[in-house]
Design a protein that fits this description.
The complex is a heterodimer of chains A (660) and B (122).
Chain A lengths: L6 H4 L23 H24 L12 H12 L5 H16 L2 H25 L9 H29 L8 H28 L10 H19 L4 H4 L9 H10 L1 H21 L11 H49 L3 E5 L5 E4 L1 H7 L3 H4 L13 H14 L3 E8 L5 E12 L5 E10 L1 H38 L3 H24 L5 E2 H13 L6 E4 L4 E2 L1 H21 L8 E11 L2 E11 L6 H4 L2 H8 L7 E6 L4 E8 L16
Parallel strand pairs in A: 7-9
Antiparallel strand pairs in A: 1-2, 1-5, 3-4, 4-5, 6-8, 9-10, 10-12, 11-12
Helix pairs in contact in A: 2-3, 2-4, 3-5, 3-7, 4-5, 5-6, 6-7, 6-12, 7-11, 7-12, 8-10, 8-11, 10-11, 10-12, 11-12, 16-17, 17-18, 17-19, 18-19, 19-21
Chain B lengths: L7 E5 L3 H13 L3 E6 L2 H10 L4 E5 L1 E2 L2 E2 L1 H9 L4 E5 L15 E3 L4 H12 L4
Parallel strand pairs in B: 1-2, 1-3, 3-6, 6-7
Antiparallel strand pairs in B: 4-5
Helix pairs in contact in B: 2-3
C-alpha cells in the first residue's frame, strides 16, 4: 500500500494508518470477496472459540460466567476493524464454546446472541461517538470507549447472558447480581485489555519499528515481562511471598506511555495483565489473595482496569502532544527557511526598537552578523539625520494602526551608508497594545542614485537649453544693433542661428566628444560652394576640436564665410580662399594655429568691413584664450588665430554629483 | 537717471554672446565693465587689479562652479549676483538667497538684480 499522500500521512501518521472502512452492513458487501470474508470469519471464530473455552475453564461463580473473558475484546476489535459483518464468527464461536461447556443448546444460542450483540452494539457506539478505530488515539476517546463498554456493551452481554442462564434454569435467580457482576466485569476487562492491543497494532503495524527503535521496544517488553514475573508470577514466591510488589507494574507502563505511544502501551498492559492472571490463578499475588477465588479475580479485574485506562489515556495524550510538537517544529522550520533565505531583508523588532529577528538579507544590508544585530536598537543602525523622520512616521503608524513606508540610510560598521527602503507593519495584540513591528527592507541605493542622476540630467538639460536660448537672444540683439534693413537683419539672424544648429549637429555626430576641424571648415563653407571645388583650398592635419571650442569656432567660420560672400573672395567667381592650420606643442600646451587667406577678391577697404560680424570674429574665441589677428590687406582679408586646444576627452558635462 | 551710474561691474561669464549682452546692459545703464572674465583665474586677477563694486556671476564656468570665487569677493566686500541657466533649485543651498537672473533674460531683470545686490543689507 504505497503512500497515497492522504491527510493521514501528512498530519502525523507517517506510516499511513490504514484507512477505516467503516461499513455498517451486517452482510458481506460483494460476492468477490466472499472467500476472503469466509476466511476471516473462520479465523476470528476460531480465535474466539479457543479463548472462550479457556475462559470458561476458569469459571468460578458459574460454569458459564468467567471473570477472565478475552473473547469480548477480540469480538469488539474484529467488529471495529473488519466491520459488523463478522457477527457470524462471533456468534458461532460463542455458541460452540458455550455448548461445549454447558451442553445446553438454547441457552448457548441465547448467550451467543448476547455476546454478538455486545460486540455489534459496542462497535456501533464506538464508531458513532468515539472515533471508530482511532478511538485510542485521544485521551477522550479512551475514556469514552471505557464508558461505552461499561455502560452498554458489557452490560448488554452480561444482561443477555445472565438472563438466559436464569431463564433456561441454569442458574438460580438469587445469584443474579453476583453472576451479572462477574460476567460484566469480565467482559469489561476483556474489552479494555485486549481490544486496544489488537486495534492499535492493526492501525500502526510499522510505526517506530525501525532498526534503531527495536532494541528499545524489546527492552520495554522484556522489562514488562520481568516486572510481570517479579510482581505476579509464582516463580519467585518462596522469596517474596509476603511482599506486594504489584505496584512496580507502574514503571513499564509509564515508560511505554511517555516514550512509546499508545500501541506499545496497550501491549505492555496486556503483558502485565497476562502475568497478573497467571499469578492470580496460582494464588501467587499477595495483593489479590482473597477468601474466594472469584473475589480474587475481581481484584485482578480491578487491577487490569486501573492499569489499562490511565495508561492508555496518558499515552494518547503524550502521542498527541508529540505530533503537535513535530508539526509545529516542522512548520516553524518552514517559516524559518522562508524567512532566512528571502531576498528582501526581513526583521522583527520590539516596540522599543530592539531587533528580535533579522534574516540573512537584512544582515547583509546592515553588514553585521545576526548575533550583533539582535537586541540592538534600530536607532543605532539609522543615520542620525534620517532618524527624526523615521520616528515621526513610526509614531503616526502606531497611532493610526497602519503600516508605513520610509527610506533611511543604514550606517554600516565601516562608516559607509546604504539607502534602505522599509515597509513597516505594526502588529498589535488582543488588548490593542503594540506587540512588535515587522519590517521588509530593500537596498535602494542604486535606485536613488539613478533617480538622482536623472534629476541631475534634467537640470543640466534645462541649463543647457537656457544657455543656448540666451545666446541666441544675445545674438539677436547684438545683430539688430548693427544692421540697417529688415532684410539684412533677417538674413544675418537666419545665417547665424543656422550655423549654430549645424555646429550642434556636427557635435552630436561626434558623440559630443569633439569635431574634426576639417568637417567644421567644410560645413561652414558648404552653403557658399555649390560645386566650385577649386575655390576653396583646405589643408591641415587631422585635428579634433573639443565641443565648446568647436561651437564658437563654427560661429567664427560662419562669419568669415559670410563676410567673404558679401564683400570678399566669395563675392566674385575669381576669388579664392586658402584655409590651413597646424598644431604646435608649446610648453605642455597644444595650440592650434589657423589661417584664412582670401585672394583675388574685390579690393578691400576697412570701413566697409566694420560691423558686428567683425567684432564677433575678433572676440568670439577670446573666452577660449585665443589670440586673433585680422588684416585687411590689399590682396584680400587675412585672418589668423592661435588658440590653446582643450583635450576633447575632457567631459562636456561637469562632474555629476554622486549620491552619498 | 542712469541706474548703474559709476558702478564698476565685474562680469564672470564664459559664453561670448551672453557676456557681451550683460556688458552692453551695464554700459547703457551708465556702469563701467570690468572684464568679462572667462574663468576664475582671470576673475581673480581682475578683482585684485581693479576697482570692483559688484560682480555678476555665471554659475557654470567651463565646467567648474563659480562658488569658490565668492569667498574672494566676500573678502573684498564685493556683493554679487547670479546669472544662470540653472533653476533656483539647482543652486547650492548656501547661495539660494542671492539675487538671481535666469537666462534668457530681460535687460531690466539684470539691472534690477544689480541694484538689489548693491543695496545695503536690510
Amino acid at each position: 500500500m504505497k503512500a497515497k499522500a492522504n491527510a493521514a500521512t501528512h498530519f502525523g501518521y507517517p506510516d499511513g494508518a490504514k484507512e477505516a472502512t467503516a461499513d455498517h452492513f451486517l452482510l458481506p458487501v460483494s460476492i468477490n470477496n466472499f472467500a476472503g470474508y469466509l476466511t476471516r470469519l473462520l479465523l476470528i471464530g476460531t480465535a474466539y472459540f479457543v479463548l472462550a473455552t479457556g475462559g470458561l475453564g476458569l469459571a468460578t461463580v458459574h460454569p458459564s460466567a468467567t471473570a477472565i473473558w478475552p473473547p469480548s475484546g477480540i469480538a469488539l476489535a474484529a467488529a471495529l476493524l473488519v466491520g459488523l459483518r463478522v457477527w457470524p464468527a462471533i456468534f458461532f464461536g460463542a455458541f460452540v464454546a458455550n455448548l461445549v461447556a454447558s451442553e445446553a443448546v438454547l441457552a448457548s444460542a441465547a448467550i451467543a446472541t448476547g455476546n454478538t450483540l455486545e460486540a455489534i452494539v459496542g462497535a456501533v457506539l464506538v464508531e458513532r461517538w468515539c472515533g471508530g478505530r482511532r478511538v485510542f488515539d485521544t485521551p477522550l476517546g479512551v475514556l469514552k470507549f471505557a464508558l461505552m463498554v461499561m455502560a452498554f456493551a458489557a452490560a448488554i452481554g452480561a444482561s443477555a447472558g445472565v438472563t438466559s442462564l436464569m431463564l433456561f434454569g441454569l442458574a438460580e435467580w438469587r445469584l443474579f447480581a453476583d453472576i451479572w457482576k462477574t460476567w460484566w466485569l469480565g467482559d469489561v476487562a476483556g474489552a479494555l485489555v485486549v481490544t486496544p492491543v489488537i486495534v492499535l497494532w492493526a492501525n500502526y503495524p510499522r510505526r517506530r519499528l525501525k532498526a534503531e527503535a527495536l532494541p528499545e521496544l524489546a527492552a520495554l517488553f522484556a522489562a514488562a515481562c520481568a516486572v510481570g514475573l517479579i510482581a505476579f508470577s509464582p516463580l519467585l514466591r518462596p522469596a517474596l511471598v509476603a511482599t506486594p510488589l504489584t505496584f512496580i507494574a507502574v514503571f513499564p507502563l509509564l515508560w511505554a506511555a511517555l516514550y512509546r505511544g499508545p500501541r506499545d502501551t496497550a501491549t505492555v498492559v496486556l503483558i502485565l495483565c497476562a502475568f497478573a492472571v497467571w499469578g492470580t490463578l496460582a494464588d501467587a499475588v499477595p495483593l489479590f489473595v482473597r477468601p474466594s477465588r472469584n473475589d480474587a479475580f475481581l481484584v485482578l479485574i480491578a487491577f487490569c482496569l486501573s492499569v489499562s485506562i490511565p495508561s492508555l489515556v496518558l499515552s494518547a495524550e503524550v502521542a498527541i502532544r508529540r505530533q503537535t510538537e513535530a508539526r509545529l517544529r516542522s512548520r516553524e522550520q518552514e517559516l524559518r527557511d522562508i524567512f532566512k533565505q528571502a531576498m528582501l531583508g526581513i526583521s522583527l523588532r520590539a516596540p522599543d526598537g530592539r531587533l528580535l529577528f533579522a534574516n540573512d538579507a537584512f544582515c547583509r544590508l546592515a553588514q553585521r552578523a545576526e548575533s550583533e544585530l539582535l537586541h540592538m536598537p534600530l536607532r543605532d543602525l539609522v543615520d542620525p539625520e534620517d532618524w527624526p523622520r523615521n520616528l515621526k512616521l513610526f509614531e503616526g503608524a502606531v497611532r493610526d494602526e497602519q503600516p508605513y513606508d520610509v527610506e533611511v540610510r543604514f550606517v554600516r560598521p565601516d562608516g559607509s551608508r546604504v539607502w534602505v527602503h522599509g515597509f513597516v507593519t505594526p502588529v498589535f495584540d488582543e488588548t490593542g497594545a503594540l506587540r512588535h513591528l515587522v519590517s521588509v527592507s530593500q537596498d535602494v541605493t542604486e535606485r536613488r542614485r539613478a533617480e538622482e542622476r536623472q534629476r541631475w540630467f534634467m537640470a543640466e538639460l534645462d541649463h543647457r537649453v537656457r544657455n543656448i536660448l540666451a545666446t541666441v537672444q544675445s545674438m539677436l540683439r547684438l545683430t539688430g544693433r548693427r544692421v540697417q534693413t529688415k532684410q539684412e537683419y533677417a538674413a544675418a539672424i537666419e545665417g547665424r542661428v543656422t550655423a549654430m544648429a549645424r555646429a550642434h549637429s556636427l557635435l552630436r555626430r561626434g558623440q559630443w566628444e569633439g569635431v574634426k576641424l576639417e568637417e567644421l571648415v567644410r560645413d561652414a563653407l558648404a552653403a557658399h560652394l555649390a560645386g566650385e571645388v577649386e575655390t576653396i583650398a583646405i589643408a591641415g592635419p587631422e585635428c579634433l576640436i573639443e565641443a565648446r571650442q568647436a561651437l564658437d569656432l563654427a560661429m567664427l567660420l560662419h562669419e568669415l564665410a559670410t563676410n567673404a560672400a558679401k564683400y570678399g573672395a566669395l563675392s566674385v567667381p575669381a576669388g579664392r580662399i586658402a584655409i590651413d592650420w597646424e598644431q604646435k606643442r608649446d610648453g605642455g600646451e597644444l595650440r592650434l594655429h589657423l589661417r584664412w587667406q582670401e585672394k583675388y577678391g574685390p579690393p578691400v577697404t576697412e570701413p566697409e568691413r566694420l560691423g558686428f560680424g567683425t567684432e564677433l570674429i575678433r572676440n568670439i574665441l577670446e573666452p577660449h584664450g585665443a589670440a586673433v589677428t585680422m588684416e585687411f590687406a590689399r590682396l584680400g582679408v587675412r585672418f589668423s588665430m592661435d588658440m590653446p586646444l582643450v583635450d576633447p576627452g575632457q567631459r562636456w558635462l561637469p562632474e555629476m554629483p554622486l549620491a552619498d | 537717471m542712469l541706474k548703474l551710474a559709476g558702478l564698476h561691474v565685474l562680469i564672470v561669464e564664459d559664453e561670448y554672446f551672453i557676456a557681451r549682452s550683460i556688458a552692453r546692459i551695464v554700459e547703457e545703464a551708465g556702469g563701467k565693465n570690468v572684464g568679462p572674465a572667462r574663468d576664475l583665474q582671470a576673475a581673480r586677477d581682475l578683482l585684485s587689479g581693479s576697482e570692483v563694486d559688484v560682480a555678476v556671476l555665471d554659475i557654470d564656468i567651463h565646467g567648474t562652479d563659480v562658488y569658490p570665487l565668492t569667498s574672494d569677493l566676500a573678502a573684498r566686500g564685493v556683493p554679487f549676483l547670479f546669472v544662470t541657466g540653472y533653476d533656483v533649485s539647482g543652486i547650492s543651498p548656501n547661495f539660494q538667497n542671492r539675487p538671481l537672473v535666469t537666462k534668457p533674460f530681460e535687460d531690466s531683470a539684470v539691472l534690477d538684480a544689480i541694484v538689489a545686490a548693491t543695496r545695503p543689507a536690510a
